[in-house]
Amino acid sequence: IKSFDYSTGQTLATNVFGFDSSKYYSVFTLGTASAYQNVVTRDNFDSLSTTAGMAYVRYINAVNDPNPVAVSFMSNGTEFIKTNAPFASVSGFMAAAPGDVNITITNDGSVNSNRKITVEQNKLYTILLTGIPGSTDSDKAVQIKFIQNGSL
Question: What's the mean per-residue pLDDT of the chain?
Answer without folding.
Answer: 93
